[in-house]
Amino acid sequence: MMGVVLTVTAVALALAAAGAIIRIARGPSLLDRVLAADVLLAILGAALCIDMAVNRHLNNLMLVVAVSVIGFIGSVTVARFVADRREQPSEP
Amino acid sequence: MNPEPNLVDAVIDAVSAVFMVVGALMSLAAAIGLLRFPDLMSRMHAATKPQVLGLFLLLASVGLQLRTWWVWPVLLVAWIFQLLTVPVSAHMVGRAGYRTKHLHKELLSKDELEAVVQKAAKAARESEADDGGNRTA
């Protein structure tokens, strides 16, 4: 049963990663790309969790937490800089 | 203690398998939402599914598969950390998206931020007008 689950989740996560990468490539604005990169990191964390669950180990847990930290810091930083850069030209 | 340990094992395996499949489908739903939705705000709505519910389901399946009690607090800490950071980053991205006008106003059912923005702009204009009046007088 675990083999079937692994196949189904691998296919779903691969399609999801492809969709997120398409949105990163196509995204009209920088914020869309940041959001899609955040989703891509969430998909990576999901893959690490499924690896842990199927193979019954905990080696990746710190990596999952680190991935979520990277997503948080990255999106907050980019959102901050977008707000600063787009505000400058509109000011008289 | 357990009359049928094999049955319990099978049930736990089935529950964790369902959690894993549903958690992976959350990621797929987020990707489909990213591709199909029209603007940044609705894409943000889709993007939070794997970050909160998907991670919860997958961490729960890890805990069920390991079959020990001491991993649950560790997994709970990882999930609560994600719960604390996701709203902050979503707030920052949404705020930057509103300020840079990456949204379709006609799709919003209620825009509570607009009144605040207009009030702040009016106050700024009035203070500027006062400064100009003082300078000319």
TrEMBL record, chain A:
This is Cation:proton antiporter. GO terms for molecular function: sodium:proton antiporter activity. The chain crosses the membrane at residues 35-54, 61-83. Its main location: membrane. It comes from the Bacteria. GO terms for cellular component: plasma membrane. It is found in: Cell membrane. Keywords: Cell membrane, Membrane, Transmembrane, Transmembrane helix, Transport. Belongs to the CPA3 antiporters (TC 2.A.63) subunit F family. It is a multi-pass membrane protein.
TrEMBL record, chain B:
The chain crosses the membrane at residues 12-35, 47-64, 70-93. It comes from the Bacteria. One of its GO terms (molecular function) is sodium:proton antiporter activity. Pfam families: PhaG_MnhG_YufB. InterPro entries: PhaG_MnhG_YufB (IPR005133). Keywords: Membrane, Transmembrane, Transmembrane helix. Signal peptide: none annotated. Belongs to the CPA3 antiporters (TC 2.A.63) subunit G family. This is Sodium:proton antiporter.
